[in-house]
Design goal:
There is one protein chain. The protein has seven helices and 14 strands. By secondary structure, it is α/β, with parallel strands linked by helices. The chain has a single domain, classed as Ribonuclease Z/Hydroxyacylglutathione hydrolase-like (Metallo-beta-lactamase, Chain A). The chain is globular and about 40 Å long.
Length: about 210
Amino acid sequence: MSSHLELKRYEVGPLMTNCYVLWDARSREAIVVDPGAADPAVLSLLKREDLTVKWIVNTHAHVDHVAGNRWLHEATKAPIALHERELPLLDQLEMQAAMFNYPCEPSPTPSLLLKEGDALELSGVSFLVVHTPGHSPGSVSLLTEGVALVGDALFAGSIGRTDLPGGSHAQLIQAIQSKLFVLDEATRVLPGHGPETSIGKEKRFNPFF
């Protein structure tokens, strides 16, 4: 990871979703990945570090990853970025919230529809968008120097569930093997839930492979 890039993780919401704030220590520009709830600790960090949020990025549109979109957008005015194939899930947010008894306000419409190969720039640091479907149709991972933010595709010792609408076990396995396991084994894996892991550790010990 770039020496100028700072990272902070918060577990937010009833399902303990990992919300990541990454920022450039020089420019004070930040991105927030997966605001799964309105957590005041996130805003406290943004204020304390004098950060300007450039993007709110959703790795996918399940309720526990987007429930804080409106709250954070209204607080920061930052645009929301999401893969186009996740728009139907975002439109069904009220139904998702009822299904999981998860408190949620409707999300603003994304300003940027992500696709494979896009790059989000943060003061010279590039976050490459990689389409990693299977947990949901438009799930994406963000890759930057030695770090992979993978949403619910890959976990420490596990993979994302594929029994929800739009999920595909075969597609997820293929995406992990062809898009993530080709990365350097030292790459830090920052998942949507649970502890950090590494590509090498998951290639060797993850029971799904």
